[in-house]
Write a structure and sequence with these properties.
Blueprint: H1 7-27, H2 29-47, E1 54-57, H3 64-69, E2 78-83, H4 86-99, E3 104-108, E4 121-127, H5 136-146, E5 147-158, H6 165-176, H7 198-205, E6 209-222, H8 225-235, H9 237-244, H10 248-262, E7 273-285
Helix pairs in contact: 1-4, 1-8, 6-10, 8-9
Length: 286
């Protein structure tokens, strides 16, 4: 095993990447919230939070899904909004204050070792988090451990790259121009749980029952190619790191390549883009 393959090294790299992404996600919080709302609504409606319950959100990022669900918990219920990075937790704290959500606690928690007592929460939400776990099976096993008997889980994970051109076009452009190598499909990342049957198998392997996997189709909307490039730069640390090293001519060539790849999704003559997105969503009981 090389250093690059070492699980702890990989975890450290992933945490560093998300820590450095927090400011961009906070700055783009309204856009992120609107983009993910169809998925958040599915998850909240499915897990059906009840007054007085203790609800855990894992890999919460800026926290919008959990903070939206918190209103259903009432003053006697509690949301535990968690993330593995301090930057994202700080953004979520600010978001809760901004939205006036008071029935919330914040905790720094890892997906693969959730530092909470066994059978201590009634429901769990995790939007686009488990696919970044180095060992998603262990992460789901930990999730089941902290759920009370009969507890509910709702999660989201991205469908295949072909179903999500909004996410793949920037990387395709970097590869085409020789700035990066093609991504490793076996590594933790956006599409790690996209293979047919993989998500259900992992949930069942972790001991969950009443497993249901569905999909939500929606769109990523941008006013222009430039807006697309700049938003991707803010939200994707990998993309942003590469772009920050490019000379002006290389940056212009990258923008042109992304524009060419995205041309099929032009919404109007003014340059707006409407690019398809598809997320898997899943529900299960402990």
């Amino acid at each position: 095993m090389t250093d690059d393959d070492d699980p702890d090294t990989l975890r450290g790299e992933l945490l560093d990447r998300w820590e450095r992404s927090a400011s961009g996600w906070s700055a783009r919080r309204e856009r992120v919230r609107a983009f993910g709302m169809p998925v958040s609504r599915w998850m909240i409606d499915t897990v059906a939070p009840r007054p007085g319950e203790r609800l855990l959100e894992l890999a919460a990022g800026v926290g919008d899904t959990g903070l939206l669900a918190a209103q259903s918990l009432g003053s006697s219920g509690t949301l535990v909004s968690s993330d593995a990075t301090e930057g994202m937790l700080e953004a979520a704290r600010g978001r809760a204050t901004e939205l006036g959500v008071e029935n919330v606690e914040f905790a720094r928690l890892e997906l693969e070792w959730i530092d909470l007592p066994t059978a201590s929460v009634d429901a769990v939400l995790c939007r686009w988090g488990f696919m970044f776990a180095v060992d998603p099976g262990t992460a789901l096993g930990e999730t089941r451990r902290v759920l009370r008997p009969g507890g509910r889980l709702a999660l989201a994970a991205w469908d295949t790259p072909e179903r999500n051109p909004w996410a793949t076009i920037p990387t395709q452009a970097l590869v085409a121009l020789g700035h990066v190598s093609p991504p490793d499909p076996s590594a933790p990342g956006m599409f790690a749980l996209a293979a047919p049957g993989r998500l259900a198998a992992l949930l069942e392997g972790a001991g969950f029952v009443e497993v249901r996997v569905d999909a939500v189709d929606f769109e990523a909307n941008y006013d222009s190619v430039d807006a697309y490039v700049e938003e991707t730069r803010d939200l994707s640390r990998q993309f942003g790191d590469v772009v920050s090293r490019l000379a002006q001519a290389e940056h212009e060539a990258l923008r042109a390549e992304i524009g060419a790849l995205a041309a099929a999704f032009a919404a109007n003559a003014g340059g707006a883009l409407r690019i398809p997105a598809r997320s898997l969503v899943a529900a299960a009981s402990s």
